[in-house]
Specification:
Helix 3 runs antiparallel to helix 4 and helix 5 packs across helix 12. This protein has two domains: 98 residues, Orthogonal Bundle (Helix Hairpins), CATH 1.10.287; 311 residues, Bira Bifunctional Protein, Domain 2 (BirA Bifunctional Protein, domain 2), CATH 3.30.930. It is of the alpha+beta class and 429 residues long. The strands form four sheets. An eight-stranded mixed beta sheet has the order 1-9-10-11-14-8-7-2. The chain has a three-stranded antiparallel beta sheet with strand order 3-5-4. A three-stranded mixed beta sheet has the order 6-12-13.
């Protein structure tokens, strides 16, 4: 959430920054409501001062033994007017809050200009696209031939867009999660947490998923619980409505399944694991001092890159343009893996700095050097997301006979297994 004082005092600059997002916002309406609210508060305060002065005058007159019935009636009438002004001001407060919740964050000046993904900027590319002596297969062909996932049965269990991992497919998924958690804890200094996989509306509002993205999520209205779209939601909200009483940065990492409706037309990219309604992800979240947040963002990106370097995968880092930023982000880098079977780059990580936007919505503060409480800056990044990581491993490490070699970094997590080959009957559904 933006600071209303910032909007009020720097409206032209805020308006210009929001225009970079190429999205329609109700800034005029918000400014109007803010003016109306302040006018009501000013009128109420003036009447309260008048009432206080009249009350003092009544007290003085009573001491003199004079009749104060007229003055008391006047004070009572003032009380009625004040109560009505206060009621109207509360209504404006609620209206202002709703409007503020729908205003996106301001893009950082270093975020490139642009209208959409086509205007994102390649920051760097690591590795080279692998060449094959045969036509590389898609992960769908590879996985179904090896018997490591079964989308037909998954569809009968739920609906299309939900994966079912089998045998070494399930073991690979679990091994990658453990590998990433260990890397972020041991090498990068994160504290592991395990959170609920559902959150209430207040938590979803705190990180910016609500009200903007309600239609993209799964909701249980009877319990006011949402299936989380990312572990960013519960992990960030750990400190909701708190003052963090410890040194910053606080760095937390968590595994969670992620649930997203992913509405859209059917097509090539919706088959297999490319676009699913449920996927696993390891998420990194940081709570940092405002003056260090952009340095911490670069470190966060580096932490995610370490995962891909260790797995020997080709990737690129993209700086998102202002028009492609998520609702809450001030600056964001996407990391994309090369998938030869798709002949495409696949996003597996988004690393964002939200500045104080989430903290202001969720009431998360820290003590600065003067011990004064102020809003912390929050960051988060995928470290990294599956199932597209599985796609990239299967497609990059495939062999001509249809088997898949496995990256050396995860062999210890697979009990020494170095290759996925077609399973025998006992290891298949």
């Amino acid at each position: 959430m933006l600071d209303i004082k910032l909007i009020r005092e720097h409206e032209p600059e805020v308006r210009q920054a929001l225009e970079r997002r190429r999205t329609v916002v109700k800034l005029d309406e918000l400014c109007r409501v803010d003016r109306e609210r302040r006018k009501l508060v000013t009128e109420a305060e003036a009447l309260k001062q008048q009432r206080n002065a009249s009350s003092e005058e009544i007290g003085r007159l009573k001491k003199e033994g004079r009749d104060t019935a007229g003055q008391q009636n006047a004070v009572k009438a003032l009380g009625g007017k004040i109560a009505e002004l206060d009621r109207q001001a509360r209504e404006k407060d609620e209206e202002l809050e709703k409007l503020l919740l729908n205003i996106p964050n301001l893009p950082h000046p270093s975020s490139p200009d642009g209208a959409g993904s086509q205007d994102n900027v390649v920051v760097r590319v690591a590795g080279e696209k692998k060449s094959f002596s045969f036509q590389p297969r898609t992960h769908l062909e590879i996985g179904e031939n090896l018997g490591i996932f079964d989308f037909a049965r998954a569809g009968r269990l739920s609906r299309a867009g939900f994966p079912l991992y089998v045998g070494l497919g399930a073991k690979l998924e679990r091994a990658l999660i453990q590998f990433m958690i260990d890397l972020h804890v041991k090498d990068h200094g994160y504290l592991e947490v395990s959170t609920p996989f559902v959150c209430n509306s207040a938590a979803m509002t705190g990180t910016g998923q609500l009200p903007k993205m309600a239609e993209d999520m799964y909701f249980v209205p009877s319990d006011d619980l949402w299936l989380i779209p990312t572990a960013e939601v519960p992990v960030t909200n750990i400190y909701r409505e708190e003052i963090i009483e410890r040194d910053l940065p606080v760095k937390l990492v968590a595994y969670s399944p992620c649930f997203r409706r992913e509405a859209g037309a059917a097509g090539k990219e919706t088959r297999g694991l490319i676009r699913v309604h449920q996927f696993d992800k390891v998420e990194m979240v940081k709570f940092v001092e405002p003056e260090t947040s952009y340095d911490e963002l670069e470190k966060l990106v580096g932490n995610a890159e370490d995962v891909l370097r260790a797995l020997g995968l080709t990737y690129r880092v993209m700086a998102l343009c202002a028009g492609d930023l998520s609702f809450a982000a001030a600056k964001c880098y996407d990391i994309e893996l090369w998938a030869p079977g798709q002949n495409a780059w696949l996003e597996v990580s988004s690393c964002s700095n939200f500045e104080s936007f989430q903290a202001r919505r969720a009431g998360i503060r820290y003590r600065n050097k003067k011990r004064k409480a102020e809003f912390v800056h929050t960051l988060n990044g995928s470290g990294v997301a599956l199932a597209r990581l599985v796609v990239a491993i299967l497609e990059n490490y495939q062999l001509s006979d249809g088997s898949v070699e496995l990256p050396e970094a995860i062999v210890p997590y697979l009990g020494g297994i170095r290759r996925i080959e077609k399973a025998d009957t006992a290891a298949r559904l």
